[in-house]
Amino acid sequence: MFIPYSEVDKNARIWIYQSERKLNxxxxxxxxxxxxxxxxxxxxxxxxxxxxxxxxxxxxxxFVDESKFNASGCSIDSSVAVIKSIANQYNIDFFNRLNIAFxxxxxxxxxxLNDFKRCVSSEMMVYNNLVKTKGEFEExxxxxxxxxxxSKYLEN
Length: 156
What we know:
The protein is an alpha+beta fold. It folds into 2 domains: 5-90; 99-153, no CATH class. It has helices spanning 25-41, 73-90, 113-119, 134-140, and strands at 13-18, 43-44, 47-48, 50-56, 59-65, 99-104, 107-112, 125-127, 142-144. A hairpin with a 2-residue loop joins strand 6 and strand 7. Helix 1 (25-41) packs antiparallel against helix 2.
């Protein structure tokens, strides 16, 4: 069951899918329709999941408020199938975890990890796609590299 993002509890679980390229406005409009449909139909063991999403130029973020019903393995698999379908439709890879997203000024950039390691700096802001809840997402998704797992690539 789709709920507006503003009504999603701060403890809601999140899954972040990062694109390898910037999504254009037509793609974002279509993806919004597909994700709304997913949320309207998304269930775990027959129980409707209270869920929402946020779209950004490079990201799909899915949220499930598990205070009523937990997302199950099968329900998570069904959401991954929708993301894979979107990926196939637009020839985009949302599953390459070796692509690192960061901010250069106000612009989002994405580089393969090996290229990213060559330009890393302690002042860098990165996208921490390992956040687990809506609250963490809102507070720590865009974070200083020093506060993320990527800090290991800073020179000591």
